[in-house]
Amino acid sequence: MEEISLKTIANRLGISISTVSRALKNHPDIREETKKAVVQLAEELEYEPNHLAFQLLKRKSNAIGVIVPKISYPLYADAISGMEAVAEAEGYQLLICQSNEDYQKEIKQINSLIASRVSGIILSVSAHTTQYDHLLRIQSRNIPFVLFNRDCEQITCSKVLIDNHKAAFEAVRHLVSLGKQRIAFLGGPPHLQISQRREQGYRDALTWAGLVLNEELIQQVEFSKEVIMETISTLLNSPLPPDAILTYSDQIAQRALVMARQRGLRIPQDLALIGFNDEPVDELLEPSLSSIRQPAYEMGTEAARLIFKELNSAKFAYEKIILESRLMPRGSTMG
Amino acid sequence: MEEISLKTIANRLGISISTVSRALKNHPDIREETKKAVVQLAEELEYEPNHLAFQLLKRKSNAIGVIVPKISYPLYADAISGMEAVAEAEGYQLLICQSNEDYQKEIKQINSLIASRVSGIILSVSAHTTQYDHLLRIQSRNIPFVLFNRDCEQITCSKVLIDNHKAAFEAVRHLVSLGKQRIAFLGGPPHLQISQRREQGYRDALTWAGLVLNEELIQQVEFSKEVIMETISTLLNSPLPPDAILTYSDQIAQRALVMARQRGLRIPQDLALIGFNDEPVDELLEPSLSSIRQPAYEMGTEAARLIFKELNSAKFAYEKIILESRLMPRGSTMG
DNA sequence: AACGTTTTCGCAAACCTTTGCAGGAAAATC
DNA sequence: GATTTTCCTGCAAAGGTTTGCGAAAACGTT
C-alpha cells in the first residue's frame, strides 16, 4: 500500500539502510547471505529505487528536455523517435514540450526544464522567436544545449542541421534542367532562418542559371491551410503564372499539387512541383511528389548524441553536424 | 557558476532558508521589506526552484508517463499533442517512451516510469503484448493509469476509446449501400484487440446485410510495407477479387489505392476503399480516400484529464470514455 | 511597568538515496 | 593470550525544499 523504500527493507530485516543499499548494488563488502536476504525481500516487495532521491543527490535528473514547435509535424515526430532511442540506451528519458510556434510558451518551457534540472536541452525554435535571451540563459547555466533543424545563427552551440541553401539550390537546378523558366518559391514563416536560407538558395540558383528574379514569384506563407490555399490561388491566377514551384514544406506542395490538378494543369508539363521533407505519402500522390528528403530520425539521434558527448566530457567544443539531404525526383517533375 | 539554492539567498541576506522560501511564496508571515529583498536577489541570481527536491518531498514527480507504440504514427503524435496541452496547463510535464511494438521494452519502460515516481501513466499497448502482469503492477502501486486507443479488456482501469466495432460496422454498411458484395477486410496485428473488434464489426455487418462470409477475404497484416503490398497483391490477384476493402489503417488503404490504380482498376466502381484514421493526406489522394476519423487529439486531452481527475480525488471510480468516430466518405467510395 | 497581542522569523524534521569513514566482531597470526 | 588482520555493517552527512511549531521582537493597552 505504502511506498517501499530502502528503509522498509532495512527495518524488516533488522539491518541498516546503507547495508541494504550496498547489498542491492552487489557491493563486495556485503556478505552473500545478507545480500540474498535483501534481494529476495526487495523482489517480494517489488521495490523500485526512487530516482528522485538519487537525482537530488547527484544534482541532476536523468532526463533530456526537448522543445519542438509541434510534435505532430512528421519531421519532429521522427526526430523525437530518434532521440528516444539514444536516450533509452543511455538510461535517460525525454521530457517533451511543444511550443506551438509561440515565443512566450517557449520561454516558459525552458524555465520549467531548467527547474526540473534536466541534463540537457534539445530545441527547434518556434516560428515567432526573434529574441534569444532565453537560449543564452540555458548556456549560462552550463546545461548542454543542442539546436536542431531550425537553426539560430545568433547562438553559438552544438547544432544538427542540413544545408538548406544547397538543398534549395539543387532543387532549382533540377527544375532548370527540365527547362523551367518561371520558377516560384513558396517560403515558410519569414522569421525562420531555415526558410530564409532556402529562399537564398533559390535566389542564388536563379542567378546562377541566368534567370530573371521575379519578386512576385516569391511568397511567404504561415501554417494555416487557408492562407496556403489562398497564396497558391493568387499565384496560379496571375497573368504570367509560374511553370514550377519550390515550396518550404510538403504540406504546401501537396496542396499546390491538388489545386493544380483541379484546374486541369498538366503536371509536370504545365507546372512542376518540389516540396521539402519527403513525407511518406508523397509517393502515393498522383502524380507522385518530388521532395527533398531530410534525415529526420538521424537528426534526432545525432542531437541526442551531442548532448551526451557534452555531458560526458569535461571540456567540450561545440560541434556542428550537417547531415545530407537528398532530392527525391518523382512524377511532379519527371513526367 | 554554481547552483543557486534557497540557501545561497539566505546566506547572502543573513536570514534563514525558511524565510526565503516563504518570502518567495508571498507568505503573509513575512515582512514586505524582507520579501522585497529576497525577490530582488532571487531575480538577480536567476534562482530557479529545484523541482527535484520538491518532488522528493511530495513523494511524486510532476510528470505523467506516456508509452505509445511509435511516436511517429500520426494518431499518437496528435494524441501526445493533446496530452501535452492538458499537462502543461496543470504544470505537469510528459515523460514519453515508445515501445516500438515490443513487449519487453514496454515492461522495461513501465518499471522505469515507476522508478521515476511519475504521477500517472497513459498507455497504448504494443502489438505484441499478450500478457498483462506489468499493467497490474502499475495499479497495485495506486498510480493513476489510463489506457487509450488500444484497449486491453483484461485490465480494469480508466479508458479512452472509440467504438471500433461500430465504426467498422458502419463502414461496411456504407459499402453495402453502394452495392458492394465482395467486401474484404485487411486487419492489423492479430493480438490487438482493436483489430479484433474491427474485424468483428465487419463480420457482424456482413451477416446483418445477408452477405456471404468469405474467410479468404479476411487477412491480417503487420506493419511492414512489404507485407502490406504482398497481401494486397494476393487479394487483387485472386480469381474472385473483392469489390471493396475495409482496412485497419490508412497506411494500408493508401497503399491499396495506389496499387489498384496502377492495375487500371476504377475506383470506386471496380474497387471501393475505406481506411482508418483519416490522415490529412487522405483528401489529397486521387481519388481521395474515404476514412474513419478518430479524434486523436481529443483522445489525448481526455486521457490526460482522466489522470488528473484520478489524481485529485480521494475515491475514484474508473471511467470509460467512448469518443465518437465518424466515417468521412470521399472519392474512394462515392465516385 | 506589566501584560497581552501581533508580527515576523528560525529550528528541525521529513522525503530517499549514496558513500566515506569508523567501528565491532570474528578470525588469523604471533 | 595479545595483537593484527579481515570481514562486515552502521553512522552521518549531503542534496534542496516545505511546513508545523515555537520563540523572539515589536507594538499596543492599561
* Low-pLDDT residue spans of chain A: none
Please name the CATH architecture of the largest domain in chain A: 3-Layer(aba) Sandwich
Which quaternary structure do these chains form?
A: homodimer
Strand order of the largest sheet of chain A: 2-1-3-4-5-11
Task: For the record, give the distance between the C-alpha atoms at the N and C termini of chain A, rounded to a whole number.
Answer: 68 Å
Annotation field: number of helices of chain A: 13
Write the element-wise H/E pattern of chain A from the N-terminal end onward.
HHHHEHEHEHEEHEHEHEHEEHEEH
Q: In the residues of chain A, how many domains can be counted?
A: 3
What CATH first level of the largest domain in chain A would be assigned? Alpha Beta
- Residue fraction in strands of chain A: 15-25%
Radius of gyration of chain A equals 26 Å
- The third-level CATH topology of the largest domain in chain A is Rossmann fold
| SS class of chain A | alpha/beta
Q: What is the residue-mean pLDDT of chain A, rounded to a whole number?
A: 94
CATH superfamily of the largest domain in chain A: Response regulator
Question: How many β-strands of chain A, per DSSP?
Answer: 12
State the helicity of chain A in percent bands.
40-55%
Major β-sheet of chain A, in short?
6 strands, parallel
* Shape verdict of chain A: elongated
Biggest interface goes to: A-B, 51 and 51 residues
